[in-house]
Design a protein that fits this description.
heterodimer, A: alpha/beta, Dimethylsulfoxide Reductase, domain 2, 29 helices, 17% strand, B: 4 helices, 0% strand, binds iron/sulfur cluster, binds FE2/S2 (inorganic) cluster
Amino acid sequence: MGYEPQADFGTPPVQSDQPVTLAIDGRAVTVPAGTSVMRAAAESGGSIPSLCATDSVKAYGSCRMCLVEIEGRKGTPASCTTPVEPGMVVHTQTSRLQRLRRGVMELYISDHPLDCLTCSANNVCELQDTAAEVGLRDVRYGYAGANHLGLPTDSSNPYFDFDPCKCIACSRCVRACDEVQGTFALTIAGRGFASTVSAGQAGDDFLSSECVSCGACVQACPTATLQEKAVKEIGKPERAVVTTCAYCGVGCTFRAEMRGEQLVRMVPWKDGKANRGHSCVKGRFAWGYANHRDRVLEPMIRDSIEDPWRVVSWDEAFAYTAERLNAIKARHGARALGGITSSRCTNEETFLVQKLVRAGFGSNNVDTCARVCHSPTGYGLKTTFGTSAGTQDFDSVMQADVILVIGANPTDAHPVFASRMKRRLREGAKLIVIDPRRIDLVRMPHVEAAHHLPLQPGTNVAVLTAMAHVIVTESLADEAFIRERCDWDEYQDWARFVADERHSPEVLEAVTRVPAADLRAAARLYATGGNGAIYYGLGVTEHSQGSSTVMAIANLAMATGNIGRPGVGVNPLRGQNNVQGSCDMGSFPHELAGYRHISDSATRGLFEQDWGVALNPEPGLRIPNMLDAALDGSFRALYIQGEDILQSDPNTHHVAAGLKAMELVIVHDLFLNETAGYAHVFLPGSTFLEKDGTFTNAERRIQRVRKVMEPANGLADWEVTQQLAQAMGLNWDYRHPAEIMAEIARLTPSFAGVSYDHLEEAGSLQWPVNAAAPDGSPVMHVDGFVRGKGRFVVTDYVPTDEKTGPRYPLLLTTGRILSQYNVGAQTRRTANTVWHEEDLLEIHPADAENRGIKSGDWVRLASRTGETTLRADVTDRVAPGVVYTTFHHPATQANVVTTDYSDWATNCPEYKVTAVQVMPSNGPTDWQESYASWAERSRRVAREPAE
Amino acid sequence: MDLARLHHMANQIARNLAAQGEEAAIAATAQHIRDFWEPRMKAAILGSDRSPLDPIARAALERLDDA
Ligand code: SF4
Ligand code: SF4
Ligand code: SF4
Ligand code: FES
């Protein structure tokens, strides 16, 4: 495929059932009412020259380049701001128009450096195209007058430059930042000729401004003023392949724009239904890790973790690993073997790893990193609604009237979805935030929460029960909905329970620390404010009552009838790109693909027949239990694909001890991660750019991942798993991931209609895709719940066992920030580190003062489990008694302090509540120092002398 | 297996299900362990000293003994 830029229709599409027919240059054109003349012309294959219009932002009408003539009207209106009307007769190319446009163009060009031949945007510049389109050959004013040509370039952003000499002050960037991203970082400063774009306040550059580096302005800019540095360095792209971001669960789709085998840039794909043409700094720019020098490209083995690594061929690596796996199985039985699937890998790869464990190893000891994030979502939503997934598509938020965000920080963790949400809030939807921290959404430009309930960490269930109390006792429940859609008896049991006085906001205030009046007002707003939509994240799930909280959320939505149509619903914001998919694919030890219990003999029979082996009917071990069993000696070998459990799982010391006790740890990853310090086999992984497959995002949307370059390590991840299986004696023979998807579809009812051909045709599909919903299901539970009747589950507040006391008086909670991603293995290897060099501990000024701590000081953070040091950030974003940090850097190892406590139903760790003490310190702890030297030692590689 | 951890897990399940009423909570606790625990874990807790367990968890294990 050659390089074609994405089509630009000039103004955004309009939703309307009313068609309007008009004539443009003699052609009859029909478009929805409200569409601009410019867009109507573009949709019918014509084109009107333009400079200040682009279809990601509203028309502005400033450049006067898009003038047209309309029969019966005076003058020459701007086509971008003129809506179509029935019977309108429009002319876009007349000699008068040409003259006018040429005059306008001449003014622009007279203030523009004419270095087109050497400009990095040469041939991909709209100004140049438009000049050619209007036939401008000559500039009468000369270039000697006042112009902007001497202004310096702002190169402060690591990914794009701002060269004001080339700016035509069209304000597309400003509007993109306001309307698309919602950050309001840019302004046009000055007036008339002196006007220029400026980031932040006077004296700011892009880096020091509010800019979050989403790239929307760069994409909107018609000139080379705002341009990716990579385009300058590598050159213009020659081809483009549509693929899906491998960072977070929003699942943005991009055009990977390539020059030869080199990736030049990732440009958000306008037709992507998850992101609608938008992106964040990670997906847009932070892909440099893909060819970072730390990436390991050759397999390595060692007999003991004390030995240096030995580089071997793929064949030797597979033979060695298979032989050791088979030997352990022969000695200790299948139950000694297990695997961990990755939420970063594709559905097909995840499916293969769990298949290898169940059919090859012969155990059900397979788990996934969702254990530590959204396993309670799976449990809670399956119990109440019947499906382990969110109920809506992202578009649904545009019809919400009240948005309740609980335990989520979308502007940092799900930024592209957050931009949609902010847009809806600017349109007037009301916002309720339930979070111990004052997250950005609580107050930001043009967004302000109606209520922020800053609860004590660990009291989610109490807060939600108190809200339910208000809804039931003030008769705000939607009884008609409940009678029709839910089990009425169960509802009544639940309603009696929550109505009890001990669940009133006034009584529970002692526990939650949320003022009762605020909580009542928030409950009333959610119940009566129109379409109520709940969005939640790990602040809900990563608690000892994570599953109860998910069910309490589901109860609230059912009680208020906020389920089963656009604009409402229960929406988990999933962390990793394919965490939904990895759960769907049967990564949990008790479930086969499609969430069917392993004890169900009919389902098992289906798989047994297809795979030609007998499967164990008993559930397998979860990750924490694998580690326990390793210490017992009954669990001995673990294959870990694309996960760094030493860094991401709680209680690092316990994880390390468990790994150390194993005979064989196989790490399959891009980098020698922290877990690899305890590994005996390292299998190099491939990046999302190097393989075909699918990811499933938080809205159940299955999207294609497409290979844009050959795997640098020689094999895509699915091929590595397949060759390991073959070395163990399994007769697998997949030639392409499409064949794996065919197997998934054949064995999983909710995927029955999914195939690569269908995905190609539809762009993306939201499961279930089956006979009842051949094109997928944007909104679930429309005519009834998947389980039949919606189930109200009584959820009682049970305080966590992790309690503060005199030695550990503060509560630590954890989270993430925009520019870094999880354990940071990828983002730390990109220029994103300019925004976050280290993890900081947020502490309230009162707590800091008591301890003599100032911002920037080193502090010792200690819990009952362990201690670490990091620097303090004194801020009232956190309440007194609460401290907060991120976990992106191995040097900090925030999980050294987190505990083994976990969700009662799923063992999802209680990351969000740890009792700690914070004290001033001079630097790293002994443990940090000894770990650093151990980590370095464990990465040694012995190079064989060349033959 | 780490018995203290298994006892803690069983008690936690029982306490979270207790609000459903005793009989339902016992049945649900037993079912939860049956559905989600690996045989090694079940065997370890069934063979352990049950004194650290809450009454609901203990009664649930008795149902699993009988099964
Ligand atoms: S990169 Fe994004 S946040 Fe930064 S100025 Fe451009 S649009 Fe605004
Ligand atoms: S930077 Fe680009 S988009 Fe912004 S005003 Fe200048 S030319 Fe227009
Ligand atoms: S929002 Fe998520 S999926 Fe979208 S570009 Fe950013 S990291 Fe990637
Ligand atoms: S494109 Fe219409 S006025 Fe600029």
